[in-house]
Amino acid sequence: MALHSRICELFGVEHPILNAPMGGGDAPGRLAAAVSEAGGLGMIGGTAMGGAPWLRDEIRHARASTARPFGVGFITHLPGADELTRVALDEGVGVIAHSFGDPSPYVEPAHRAGAKVICQVRTLDEARRAADAGVDAITAQGTEAGGHTGTISTLPLVPAVVDEVAPIPVIAAGGIGDGRGIAAAFLLGAEGVWLGTVFLATPEAGVPDAYKDRVVHAGIHDTVLTSVFDIAMGIPWPDGVAGRAIRNRFTDRWHGHEDELRGSVREHPMTGSPADAEQTALYAGPSARFVARMEPAGAVLRRLASDAESVLRERPRSLLR
Ligand SMILES: Cc1cc2nc3c(=O)[nH]c(=O)nc-3n(C[C@H](O)[C@H](O)[C@H](O)COP(=O)(O)O)c2cc1C
Question: For ligand 1, atom 3, which residue shows the shortest CA distance?
Fold first, then answer.
């Protein structure tokens, strides 16, 4: 028996597991294609420095590498989201995800183009807004997530969002790192899972090798939810959202000293993102604990699906008598 849910039907996939659409080139077309080829729903992180031409290339690259469905996700409140979404729809992408901004303007054009829409949310208000906008699925993102996220934990957020938006299928995100986490998400009422951190230490991820190495070696206590990189880069995020990253010299120096950092940035504006792993944002969550080595994305997907199935087969039966 295989793990199967409404998400499999909705997106036409074998496993109800998605890689997170990690922006900045972190989840490029080759990552999405590898995840889709392994039976999950691969997602390209569509918000990146290269803008529309980059996104078009990545979509075409993914399409050349897999005949299976894949999607693209956006950081919707940042400039360029309208144009990037149009590119994805023009290219015939079947699943469009939005996060951090209001999905309402994007639902009808996507549906007209035959695409499904997912919205990632961090609060019940956001979940209600996404449901009212008519999205096809809602990702409930707990504070354990790597990257930008809110403050409510995955464990209470997922069932609360499930109740809030029923019957819209909910996808759980944040802190899911192995088959037990996936099985737990389904027991909370989720119909799918969306994982970012565990796909970073793969050859297909678009982050530098030093970053992948940090993810492999990070333990459960090694991340921090912080605004220091947003202050340094001057990028705005909605209230209540900060970035979860692996601690490094930059976070050790500035986290807790945000006002001083603002003053320093005013005097010496930082341009670009330094390549030094001690100075740049290594966005990842505590699920890095479950990343033991570099592993191809398709192998990660298949291993996680199979482990989740084993847990769901064995664990509930062993608990009831
Ligand atoms: C490196 C990185 C980049 C991310 N970039 C984005 C993004 O561009 N858009 C988005 O909606 N979420 C982004 N996220 C958050 C993910 O969508 C997702 O919620 C998170 O990875 C799930 O938690 P996990 O990392 O514990 O699996 C990012 C996460 C990481 C780790």
Answer: 22
Residue with tokens 């080759």: 30
| Cα 21 to averaged position of ligand 1 atoms, centre (Å) | 7
Assigned architecture for domain 6-206+292-314: Alpha-Beta Barrel (3.20)
pTM of the entire structure?
0.98
Q: Which of 211, 193, 194 is nearest to 202 (CA)?
A: 211
pLDDT tens by residue, 30-66: 999 999 999 999 999 999 999 999 999 999 999 999 9
**C-beta of residue 190 within 8 angstroms of C-beta of residue 172:** yes
**Domain residue limits, the chain:** 6-206+292-314
What tens digit of pLDDT does each residue of 63-121 get? 999 999 999 999 999 999 999 999 999 999 999 999 999 999 999 999 999 999 999 99
Ligand 1 pocket list (CB less than 6 A): 20-23, 26, 45, 47, 73, 75, 99, 120, 141, 144-147, 173-176, 195-197, 283-285, 287
- Ligand 1 atom at minimum distance from 197 CA: 25
Q: Which H or E element spans position 133?
A: helix 124-133
